[in-house]
Design brief:
alpha+beta; Beta-Lactamase; Helix Hairpins; 5-stranded antiparallel sheet; 17 helices; 12 strands; 55% helix
Length: 553
C-alpha cells in the first residue's frame, strides 16, 4: 500500500471538515458539517447574551430563532438528502436566515454581530445556487434589517440608514464573490477531471509501461502494476531507512543484464534506481524477466520539477522490445549462416583461379582476360562476405598489438591502388614517418579498406583521395582522415549511413556496387577499439571520414 502523505502536506481531518462545511464538501454528513460554523457562533453569542443581557434569552423571537437553528441542524443530520433533488438542501440555509432574523429581532439590536451571521447561509446559498443564491441571501439580509422597523418603534437615524444599506450590500458582495470563485473552482475541477480522464485513456492505449513517482516513492500515476511495484521498491532501497538494505537485497535477487544478455547490471546503475535518483535515462536497453520469461526492454526516464525548479518526482517509461531483439538476432543468425555457406565455395573459386593462372603461366601463354574478371568478382564477393560476418557477429574478436599505423595505411592504399587506377582516382598519403598504435591488425586493415573503398567508389574520375594521420596530443588520440572530392552526403543520408545495409538513393540510382555494410562495420571496429568514426560532408564538395583511436601509452 502507498504510504500516507506527511502531515505537512495533508490537512488534519477536522480542518478539512470545517473547510468543507464552509465551501462545500461531499459525504454522508457534509450538510451537518455545513451547519456547525453557524451553530457554534450562535452558541457563543448566546452565552455572551446570558452573561450580559439575560432578559433577551426569554424573548419569544430569540427563542424561536434558536429553535429554528436547532431544527435546521437536526434536519441536516437525519434527512436522507442524497435521495432528494440536489436543490432541496437549500431549505437549510433559508431556515438559517430565518433563525438569524428571529434571533436578531429578539435581542433588539443589543449585539450588532447578529446581522453578520447571515454570511454563513449566504456562503452556502452562493456555493450551491451561485448568483441566485447570493441574491436570495441579500434579500434575507434586507428583511432581517427592515423587520424591526415594522414591528418596533425604531427611529430611522443616519446610523440605522447606514445599516439598512451597507449590510445587504456587504452580504451581496460576499455572496457574488463566493459564487464567482465557486464557478471558477468548478470549471477548474471539471478541466482537471477531463485531463485525468484523457491521461488515463492515453496510458491505457499506449503499449508502454509508464509510472510517475513523487520524491517519497508514492505512485502518482501508473498503467503497469508490476513496474509500479518495482519502482516503489527502488525508492525504498534508496530511502535511507532500516528497510533500505532489505529492499536492495530483494532487488538483487532478480538480476537484469546488459544487451549482451550476460553482463549483470550493478544495482546503482539499474535504470529504475537511476530514475528514482533523479537522473535522465535515454533508451537504455537491457534484458529483464517478467512472469518467468526473459524480456528485452528500453528504459527512458527523467525528473519532474516544480515551478521553483526543485525535483518533486520522476517519470519512467519501459518499452518491451523483445520481438525486435529476437528479429534482430534471427537476422544476424541468418546472415552469419549464409555468409559461412558462401565462404566455402568462394575459397574454392579463388583457389582454383590461382591454380588456373599458374598453369597458364607454366604453358607460356598470357592469362585470359576472363580470368581477371573472375578474380575481381571473387575478391569483391569475399569482402562482402567478411563484412557480413562482421556485421552479424555480436562478439567481435579483437587482439590488439603494437604496430605502425602509417604502415597499415600504406598497405591498404597499395591493395586498393588497382581499383583506384581503374577509376582514374589518385591516392595520396600524408602521414608522419611512423604513427605507433595499439590495434588489431586484421580489424584495422578491414576498417581502412572500407573507408578507402568508399572514398574511391563515390569519387568522380580525375579527383584525389587523401589519407592523413597524426597524433592529437591534447586529446591523447590518433587521428586518421580519409578525404575525397566526391558528391558528398545529404543531411538526411548522414543520419543513416552507419546503419547496416543502408544505401542512399543516389547510390542505388547510380548502380554503385555495395551492400551498405562498409561504414557500419568500420564504425563497429572503431568503437571496439575505444574510438569513434564520424563523417563530415558537404554536398558537391566531398566527404571526410574522421577516425579517432586512443593513443598508446
Amino acid at each position: 500500500m502507498d504510504k500516507p502523505l506527511p502531515s505537512t502536506t495533508r490537512p488534519a481531518t477536522w480542518r478539512r471538515s470545517l473547510m468543507g462545511g464552509l465551501v462545500g464538501a461531499e459525504g454522508r454528513h457534509h450538510l451537518f458539517v455545513r451547519q456547525l460554523p453557524l451553530v457554534v457562533v450562535m452558541a457563543i453569542v448566546t452565552v455572551l447574551m446570558a452573561a450580559f443581557y439575560p432578559a433577551a434569552l426569554v424573548d419569544p423571537f430569540y427563542l424561536g430563532g434558536l429553535a429554528l437553528l436547532l431544527l435546521s441542524l437536526v434536519l441536516s443530520a437525519f434527512v436522507p438528502w442524497s435521495r432528494l433533488p440536489p436543490k432541496a438542501m437549500l431549505l437549510l440555509p433559508i431556515i438559517d436566515i430565518l433563525a438569524v432574523g428571529a434571533a436578531r429581532a429578539g435581542e433588539a439590536g443589543r449585539v450588532d454581530v447578529f446581522g453578520l451571521l447571515v454570511v454563513f447561509p449566504a456562503i452556502w446559498l452562493a456555493t450551491v445556487d451561485k448568483e441566485r443564491g447570493a441574491w436570495v441571501a441579500t434579500a434575507g439580509m434586507a428583511l432581517i434589517i427592515m423587520a424591526p422597523i415594522f414591528f418596533t418603534e425604531m427611529t430611522l437615524t443616519p446610523q440605522v440608514w447606514t445599516k439598512l444599506i451597507m449590510l445587504p450590500v456587504t452580504i451581496a458582495a460576499v455572496g457574488l464573490t463566493v459564487s464567482t470563485i465557486t464557478l471558477r473552482l468548478e470549471a477548474s475541477a471539471q478541466e482537471n477531471r477531463q485531463q485525468r480522464e484523457l491521461l488515463h485513456s492515453i496510458l491505457q492505449a499506449v503499449d508502454v509501461g509508464v509510472v510517475a513517482l513523487d520524491t517519497g516513492g508514492r505512485i502518482i500515476v501508473s498503467n503497469d502494476d508490476e513496474l509500479a511495484a518495482r519502482a516503489r521498491a527502488a525508492a525504498t532501497a534508496l530511502g535511507g531507512s532500516g528497510s533500505s538494505a532489505a529492499a536492495a537485497a530483494a532487488m538483487a535477487q532478480t538480476p537484469i543484464f546488459e544487451p549482451d544478455g550476460k553482463t549483470a547490471i550493478p544495482f546503482d546503475r539499474r535504470p529504475l534506481v537511476r530514475a528514482v535518483r533523479g537522473e535522465y535515462v535515454r533508451n537504455y536497453l537491457f534484458w529483464d524477466r517478467r512472469a518467468g520469461a526473459r524480456v528485452a526492454r528500453y528504459a527512458t526516464s527523467g525528473p519532474v520539477h516544480d515551478d521553483s525548479g526543485e525535483v518533486v518526482g520522476c517519470v519512467l517509461a519501459f518499452s518491451d522490445v523483445t520481438p525486435l531483439m529476437k528479429a534482430a538476432a534471427a537476422q544476424s543468425a541468418f546472415v552469419a549462416a549464409v555468409s559461412h555457406e558462401l565462404r566455402t565455395p568462394l575459397t574454392a573459386i579463388l583457389g582454383y583461379t590461382d591454380l588456373l593462372r599458374e598453369r597458364l603461366e607454366d604453358d607460356g601463354g598470357p592469362p585470359a582476360p576472363e580470368l581477371a574478371v573472375i578474380e575481381r568478382g571473387a575478391h569483391r564477393l569475399r569482402v562482402i562476405v567478411e563484412d557480413l560476418l562482421t556485421a552479424a557477429s555480436s562478439d567481435m574478436s579483437m587482439t590488439p598489438v603494437r604496430l605502425d599505423l602509417a604502415e597499415a595505411i600504406h598497405s591498404a592504399m597499395v591493395s586498393l591502388q588497382p581499383v583506384a587506377q581503374a577509376a582514374q582516382i589518385t591516392l595520396e598519403q600524408h602521414t608522419p614517418a611512423a604513427v605507433p598504435a595499439l590495434v588489431d591488425p586484421e580489424r584495422i586493415g578491414q576498417l581502412l579498406d572500407n573507408l578507402l573503398s568508399n572514398a574511391i567508389k563515390y569519387s568522380p574520375a580525375g579527383t584525389t583521395v587523401v589519407v592523413g594521420a597524426w597524433i592529437d596530443a591534447a586529446a591523447k588520440q590518433l587521428v586518421v582522415e580519409v578525404r575525397d572530392q566526391g558528391r558528398g552526403i545529404t543531411a538526411e543520408d548522414a543520419a543513416l549511413v552507419f546503419d547496416p545495409f543502408y544505401r542512399s538513393q543516389s547510390a542505388r540510382e547510380s548502380a554503385i556496387p555495395g551492400a551498405g555494410l562498409g561504414l557500419s562495420v568500420a564504425k563497429s571496429i572503431a568503437e571496439r577499439h575505444g574510438g569513434s568514426l564520424r563523417l563530415h560532408s558537404t554536398e558537391g564538395v566531398g566527404t571526410t571520414a574522421e577516425l579517432r583511436l586512443p593513443a598508446p601509452d
